[in-house]
């Protein structure tokens, strides 16, 4: 960063082989906050080779579980020691508020602590095969060389959801953060080095997916790819990896319904629908972007939302008065604006927002205000496609079956919320929704111990929880006969 090498290959910090660099921009004011090395294809290939060598010839895959767990705990300690520094980097790079970045570092810490405990207790399985001379065991082994590709909305958090279980399982890896937001990951890899991660176990390259994609994903030396990002990229990676039959887990965002029944508790429902969609300016894969509200309360509910949305304070994430920051980049704001224009042309009724803020203090940043559209339906792109911005659409229903139908009427399936004071109905609806996480009378929360991932086009595989560790493990069945004897099938006569 700023002259220091930023690529970490085989335990050494190096510059890009072709001298490439990229300016990193603070989206709150458009200023360049750092210049980092931008890897070339050859750098990514070196990184995969280093990870391969560390897996095939290094000690890490067979390091005792207790040592791996101790390393994860040390990483958690260092995260807390450097919490403020990491949070500031994250805020300046992504635009999110400092309060949110601090929460991210705490969450990341809890993920390392969780896997530090879990790797020690996940036991092998002994299977009874009906023959007392046979000891049959099912054991878990590290899957091998992992490529970890993260997006820009939660750079440190998304990468840690991958690195923690990968390290815990005994894998080696190449991490590639988004080229838009590499800073916290670079700082984090310095922490991993300090914590004692052996050379070659974690390698880091940053740069454009288009340039590095082939080396990282179309590569027979890679055993597993964990990707979080957009649907189009997830499809490409899955297709390319299939050529090598490489295992892939992808988390590809969502178009998440938040269903509000007329009997829902009013204050918390208004508040959480608002937070669920406008937190981090809607740049959240599980953002509740589709409000599906019972007709009898819809007008009043939407009016209350508009009133609250117009009071949200936008500003630089470093300013404690800011409740939400800018979009991550000018390029991303252009995408959001294009979606809004299409929504208006398709007949959605704009209630608030819908154009850049006029406050001169926000003019240099890529800010976009909370925006609400009423009168929406599935024929509209704004209801079907992920915008990844502060846009809420409103659809109405009159029966429970209709609410469930609308909630499932999406090609995605990452997350959903249901709000009702009728417990039996709550249970019926959460079970009927085809989404990876469903919140009942709450929204947006997760824990390291519970799986996270999508149904349908929101992806496959899971992060967090025991399944998040299992993704990084191969399963081996060991059949051991303690009293060897002939099979007796071919008689030899
Ligand atoms: O994502 P990309 P983008 C959605 C959101 C957003 C859209 C596009 O709707 O507007 O995706 O965002 C790397 N081989 N989400 O273009 O391209 C890339 O460098 C290997 C949802 O920023 O998918 C980055 O590190 N890697 C999401 C990562 O993929 C490649 C969070 C994600 O970038 C690659 C972010 C390739 N061919 C955006 N091409 C979520 N699920 O939370 C790109 N990359």
Q: Summarize the main sheet.
A: 7 strands, mixed
- Low-confidence segments, given as residue ranges, are none
Which hetero ligands occur in this complex? ligand TXE
State the distance separating the first and last CA atoms.
75 Å
Structural class: alpha/beta
CATH class of the largest domain: Alpha Beta
CATH topology of the largest domain: Aldehyde Dehydrogenase, Chain A, domain 1
Mean pLDDT: 97
- Count of separate DSSP helical elements: 15
Strand content: 15-25%
Shape: globular
Q: How many structural units, i.e. domains?
A: 2
Q: Order the strands across the largest sheet as they lie in space.
A: 14-15-16-13-12-17-18
Count of extended strands: 20
Helix-strand blueprint:
Blueprint: E1 7-9, E2 12-14, E3 21-25, E4 32-37, H1 41-57, H2 65-81, H3 83-94, H4 98-121, E5 125-127, E6 134-142, E7 145-149, H5 155-169, E8 172-176, H6 183-195, E9 202-204, H7 209-217, E10 224-228, H8 231-242, E11 247-251, E12 257-260, H9 266-278, E13 290-294, H10 295-309, H11 330-345, E14 349-352, E15 371-374, H12 381-384, E16 391-397, H13 400-408, E17 415-419, H14 423-432, E18 437-440, E19 459-460, H15 465-470, E20 473-481
Parallel strand pairs: 7-8, 7-10, 8-9, 10-11, 12-13, 12-17, 13-16, 15-16, 17-18
Antiparallel strand pairs: 1-2, 3-4, 5-6, 6-20, 11-19, 14-15
The structure holds ligand TXE.
